[in-house]
Amino acid sequence: MKSDIVGEDYRILYDEQGNTVAFYGELSLSGSKDYEPIKQLLEEATSEELEQFTLDLKELYFLNSSGISMLSKFVIGMRKSDTQLIVIGSEEIPWQKKSLSNLQKFLPSLQLVMEASEETS
């Protein structure tokens, strides 16, 4: 399975041992077709029944509406699974504060962890 996706402004890394997909940078792809490889990576990573699976978004500084839509559809698809989905976000990133809590509406069992920056004084 392809484990990493690297673009000009972003990286998506799959840690199979930790059942985690981490997103870094800024994701502003054109539409659902461009997000297809990411969607496939997420679906393949969760195709087997896992105890838990983590989406680490805390270093994803920007995600456009097409990306949010792709993430939402992935979360909705997780309803069919018994896997505990954990989403880690950052309190410091405006789009995450606004959008990540909406994912819990699609999957009430989703565990959302919003982390504060370590640089707070």
From TrEMBL:
InterPro entries noted in UniProt: STAS_dom, STAS_dom_sf
Gene3D superfamilies reported for this sequence: STAS domain
SUPFAM superfamilies: SpoIIaa-like
Domain of life: Bacteria
All residue ranges annotated as the STAS domain in the record: 38-121
Listed name of the protein: STAS domain-containing protein
Organism: Spirulina subsalsa FACHB-351
Organism phylogeny: Bacteria, Bacillati, Cyanobacteriota, Cyanophyceae, Spirulinales
